[in-house]
Specification:
The chain is of the alpha/beta class. The chain contains 12 helices and 14 strands. The radius of gyration is 21 Å and the shape is globular. The chain binds nicotinamide-adenine-dinucleotide (NAD). Nicotinamide-adenine-dinucleotide binds next to helix 5 and strand 7.
Length: 398
């Protein structure tokens, strides 16, 4: 295969400390980042993560993945990522808002609606995106909706954005299922029950697949007959975790399922395993024990490179993150497009456009897999890297 490689080194790095006043009156500082990896194909684009493990290395990797993802799904953006090393669950709402607004003032000089457009990621949601949009607008003295995506519907958000990552993933899942002969009723385990994991469970269940186990940071639940995703979410909201949530419809009973550990979910005898929490969770040791025949990466970077090699050797198919979770950034692009052009699309239009992008991308990747006899990950990276390289050559950047 001709070797095309996108350099992982980002074009720009913004890093520093941001300081906010806590409710107690004392001041506290947090490490903050905005990494701009590549803009050969369009403005930098990438989410905002609030998590204690946020670090420069993690941000750089995620920004690089965004460059590949926007290229693979063919939207006119580059790649970026931002975040704050903080546990948002330890903050009051007031502290969270002050942190968000201070973070926006920190990054405002390097972003812009046609320069770099942040969006949501782990632990950030539409309320946080609305605060970011308001803060940027007050900084530049002009209401600027297109500065962030993932905003609330009443504030320039797009129909379908909240569940877009999982909606796009479902479209990919159905195409993969058809390609690999996976039948309805196939069993699925999902690690992570946040935005991506929960909506994915809901859509898979509605599509006729059997979600038998889900986990969050506190524990996991296994229901051999298939769990009810909505009842499980209701239970999580009430109890603070999916562990111990034994619900079928509106009826909850301990006989319906059992609590398992957050590690056990990986090695269940299921058809498909979906990591939908954080990166680097599957290492070589775990890869040897996994029984699923398909790993469908909904989180960014959940599989370590050495695990990937083991999956290839064991004949386990990995559908990579830059394909499966690209629905989020694709609908973010639709939101930005609507903001720039003063349009308001219906959910039907959003989903039709999203499905179109995904179908086109999957056939392009499938063709490379078939012609070059390589994995889906290598094929998706090849497709994306070629598009980035072509854009860089056109712009005289190489
Ligand atoms: P989220 O904050 O809504 O949810 C994360 C979930 O992971 C939570 O349920 C949390 O409890 C769980 N979790 C954390 N540590 C865990 C552990 N050790 N074991 C089991 N569960 C654990 O985040 P999200 O938006 O759903 O993002 C999840 C992944 O999907 C991330 O990798 C993110 O980058 C990726 N992603 C999300 C979007 C999006 O639009 N939400 C888009 C693209 C990619």
């Amino acid at each position: 295969m001709d070797r095309i490689k996108v350099d992982k080194t980002p074009k720009n790095i913004l890093t520093g400390a941001i300081t906010i006043k806590m409710d107690s009156g004392r001041k506290k500082s947090f490490k903050a980042f905005r990494i701009q990896h590549n803009n050969a194909r369009g403005p930098y684009k990438g989410g905002t993560r609030f998590h204690p493990q946020v670090s420069l290395e993690e941000m750089k990797t995620l920004a690089y993945l965004m460059t590949l993802k926007t290229a693979a799904i063919d939207i006119p953006y580059g790649g970026a990522k931002g975040g704050v090393a903080v546990d948002p669950k330890s903050l009051s709402v007031g502290e969270l808002e002050r942190l968000t607004r201070t973070y926006m003032r920190f990054i405002a000089p390097v972003i812009g609606p046609r320069v770099d457009i942040p969006g949501p990621d782990v632990n950030t949601n539409e309320t946080i995106m609305d605060w970011m949009q308001e803060e940027y607008s007050s900084q530049v003295g002009k209401k600027t909706l297109a500065i962030v995506t993932g905003k609330s519907l009443g504030n320039g958000g797009s129909e379908g954005r909240e569940s877009a990552t999982a909606q796009g993933a479902l479209y990919f899942f159905e195409l993969v299922a058809r390609q690999l002969g996976l039948k309805k009723g196939a069993t699925v385990a999902i690690q992570g029950y946040g935005n991506a994991g929960h909506f994915m469970a809901k859509f898979l269940d509605e599509a006729g697949y059997k979600v038998v186990a889900v986990s969050d940071s506190k524990g996991a639940v296994y229901v051999s007959g298939g769990l009810d995703p909505e009842a499980t979410m209701k239970c999580k909201q009430e109890k603070g975790t999916v562990a111990g949530c034994y619900c079928k419809g509106s009826v909850c009973d301990i006989r319906f399922g059992k609590t398992i550990s957050t590690q056990d979910i990986f090695t269940l005898d299921v058809d498909v395993l979906i990591p939908a929490a954080l990166e680097n969770v599957i290492d070589a040791k775990l890869a040897k024990k996994i029984k699923a025949k398909i790993i469908f990466e909904l989180a960014n970077g959940p599989t370590k490179p050495e695990a990937d090699t083991i999956f290839e050797d064991r004949g386990i198919t990995v559908i990579p993150d830059i394909l499966t979770n690209a629905g989020g950034v694709t609908v973010s692009y639709f939101e930005w497009f609507q903001n720039i052009n003063g349009e308001k699309w219906s959910l039907t239009k959003v989903n039709r456009q999203l499905k179109g992008k995904i179908t086109k991308t999957f056939s392009a990747v499938k063709k490379i897999v078939r012609e070059r006899k390589i994995s889906y990950r290598k094929a998706a990276y090849y497709l994306a890297a070629k598009r980035v390289a072509d854009a860089m050559i056109k712009k005289g950047q190489v």
